[in-house]
Amino acid sequence: VFTKAPVLSSVGLGAGIGIPAFSSWNNPEPELVLIATSDGTVVGATLGNDVNLRDVEGRSALLLGKAKDNNASSALGPLIRLFDDGFTLETLRHEEILLRVEGQDGYSLEGRNSVSRISRPFEELVAATIGKHHQYPDGFALFTGTLFAPTQDRDHPGQGFTHHMGDTVTIRSRHLGALVNVVGAAEELPEWSFGLRRLFGYLHDQREVLESSRKEYAS
Q1: Which residues are paired to 113 by β-bridges?
Q2: What is the CATH number of the domain that holds 55?
Q3: Is 209 exposed, middle or buried (0-12, 13-18, 19+ CB in 10 A)?
Q4: What is the extent of the structural domain holding 54?
Q5: Could you read off the pLDDT of 56-89 as tens digits, one per residue?
Q6: Is 41 among the domain residues?
């Protein structure tokens, strides 16, 4: 288990996903993402795109962070679905996650990630992430991995797949809807600027607005 992206840095439905200029061989990774609380209890799920730079990761395991964590390199959505009586962790063990890439050049690619074939069960993945060895006081979103690796040639025979700018990537499943993003240059997409400081500032401002409204209502 490794860190994919800092808190609040993932992009959502409809946003651009980033490929940095130093990568020329890359691909989407459609994954089921578990939403867990600070004690490791899984309370819901969403879909994720674990954008991967194959040419960077393949050079050395030491470059895994550089291959995985870049501007707009993590997408989550379209929503977080919380568990209830009709939607549980057991529901997700057999979820089929479908991928479609549509290029502006007319190219298309389809793939599938069958969650039931993932080698490590959910419980083992969660235990490897949180415990006495590591804590997440605010909870975490856990990408569960994928069996999908594109082999279909795109530009030249024998060179396999890589993204082009403007590719539309759709990741969907029966119980979690569809996550849709468009590929762009990481250096040109909106920079990540809404971090924890801005979040707390926003919450503070909203509290003041609420208190002001209450006073006006009371008077």
Answers
A1: 97
A2: 3.90.850.10
A3: exposed
A4: 16-191
A5: 988 988 888 899 999 999 999 999 999 999 999 9
A6: yes
Residue 136 forms part of a structural domain: yes
Q: Is 120 inside any structural domain?
A: yes
What phi and psi values does residue 144 have, to the nearest 5 degrees? -95, 0
Report yes or no: 130 and 194 within 8 Å, Cβ to Cβ.
no
Neighbours of 112 (CB within 10 A): 13
Type of residue found at 3: T
Q: How far is residue 207's CA from residue 15's CA, in Å, rounded to a whole number?
A: 28
Residue 162 lies in a domain: yes
Please tell me the pTM assigned to this model: 0.92
Which residue in the block uniquely carries the two structure tokens 């993590």?
A: 74
**Number of folded domains that form the chain:** 1
Buried b (16+ CB within 10 A) or exposed e, 124-153: ebbeebbeeeeebeebbbbbbbbbbebeee
Return the amino acid letter for 207.
R
> Which pair of structure tokens corresponds to residue 144?
């569960």
Q: Is 10 exposed, middle or buried (0-12, 13-18, 19+ CB in 10 A)?
A: buried
φ, ψ (nearest 5 deg) of residue 98: -105, 145
Measured CA to CA, the distance from residue 12 to residue 5 in angstroms comes to: 13
What's the CA angle centered on 205, arms 202 and 210, to 5 degrees?
125
Q: Reduced to 3 states, what is the DSSP secondary structure of residue 25?
A: coil
Q: What percentage of the chain exceeds 70 in pLDDT?
A: 100
CA distance 196 to 162: 34
